[in-house]
Amino acid sequence: SRLLTLGADVSAMSPQAALVLGVLGIALAVAGGHDTTLLGSVLTETRADSETCSGNDCDTMPGCPPLLSLSARDLGFFVINLDRSTDRLQAMTKAFEDANLPPFTRIPGVLVTEADSDDRTIPIRRRSKQIKLGDWGCALGHYAAWKAIANGNKQWGIILEDDVEPAPGLTLHDMVSDLVHVPLDADLVLLNPATLAMTTAEDVCEGLNVQRITWGRGMFAYLVSRDSARRLMDKAKTHAAVPVDGFTWRNSVYTTRRDLFVHPCRHPCKKSVRQDINQATAVPKQ
Length: 286
Fold this sequence. Notes:
Layout: H1 15-31, E1 58-59, E2 67-69, E3 75-81, H2 86-98, E4 105-108, H3 133-150, E5 156-161, E6 165-166, H4 172-178, E7 181-183, E8 188-190, E9 201-203, E10 210-213, E11 221-225, H5 226-239, H6 244-247, E12 253-256, E13 261-262, H7 273-281
Parallel strand pairs: 3-4, 3-5, 8-12
Antiparallel strand pairs: 1-2, 2-7, 5-11, 6-13, 8-11, 9-10, 10-12
Helix pairs in contact: 3-5, 3-7
């Protein structure tokens, strides 16, 4: 189950044009055979670009918008993993060791039940019974990762689902080099462009290693800052769309030019995190 949304900037559009764009997005999703269950607006909510940047993390490049700089010492890794999926945790740990990457922080995956649908203390509500429990739990796992980064001591965090792998041959230095400059308005930077489907990426300015992206699928691996994690949490409480990769396109999204992490399983993936949660929450047939 996937949710696809349009990521165009509608701030300058007339209501009529925005409506046409939304209908077009639904039509494209249906034509592609995708699940078009929508929780929230089809149209993206864009945040106005900040005009200024202050602090030690700010940087500039000729012709570029305000940028934040990233360093290895201020970067953490976070892996979403169900308690029962010890094999995935072991595989991810070995992959990090083989790639000589620093240890990651494990974010326990979230299992939910039908009874949880009425629990108003859960930060991301299940707004429709059509939403699978696995998709809901997956979104809550990502929310937990955002919270860990927002409250942590690292300025940056890379969030990974536990079925991805570091791209072969890439080092921590390579990853930081690709992410050394990130636009100030970025809510997240996707790190696996080859896995994304139906994407449209465009250059922001000369020399910048990340591109703006307005359409795609998948949140297997991505970068957020402490501030953007807080923004994602705030938006998710009122505007979250589930599956979580649909909520992606309500934000300011960028992508690296090459894969920093790879997802060996192509869509539809029977080994994905959400499928793992769906299997864990499945009610046995009588």
